[in-house]
Amino acid sequence: MEIPSNCRYTKDHEWVRIEGAVVAVGITEFAQGELGDVVFVDLPLPGKVVKQKETLCVVESTKAASDVYAPIGGAVAESNKALADKPDLVNKSPYADGWMVKLKNFSQAECDALMDAAQYREYLGPRG
Q: What are the φ/ψ torsions at residue 77 (nearest 5 degrees)?
């Protein structure tokens, strides 16, 4: 299972990756596998401000609809428009093409407090 070392992770299986002045946010390979085939992603509009652990967006799969929580607080700078036509990118490429939002004005301290790749792999245990 892919767990990129350049991301930070939550116990709810979201990831963040710092990209200069913004952080990209998505769900992990483990999460997309648990959800099954993603058929729709309800993304927030740019400008929306979220606090850490608030609902950021909703992912609908063939199994269920699931909230994706903000791993860190910030303001939505951009949503991944490609997911409107190709929500299955979340399944096929959760860390690259399947990112969900980019946040600006984020807290570096909140980001630093998340698990690194080794800690996330240990958290998953035999599941990962």
A: -90, -35
Q: Is residue 128 within 8 Å of 30, Cβ to Cβ?
A: yes
Can you say whether residue 20 is alpha, beta or left, with left for phi > 0 and alpha for psi between -120 and 50 degrees? left
The answer to whether the predicted template modeling score (pTM) of the entire model surpasses 0.90 is yes
pLDDT tens by residue, 32-61: 999 999 999 999 999 999 999 999 999 999
Instruction: Answer yes or no: are the C-beta atoms of 74 and 53 closer than 8 Å.
Output: no
C-alpha to C-alpha distance for 82 and 102, rounded to whole angstroms: 13
pLDDT band at 98 (very low <50, low <70, confident <90, very high): very high
Q: Buried b / exposed e across 35-63, counting CB within 10 Å, b at 16+?
A: beebeebebbeeebebebeeebbebbbee
Nearest of 59, 69, 96 to residue 14 by alpha carbon = 69
Q: Domains in the chain, start-ordered, CATH in brackets? A: 8-110 (2.40.50.100)
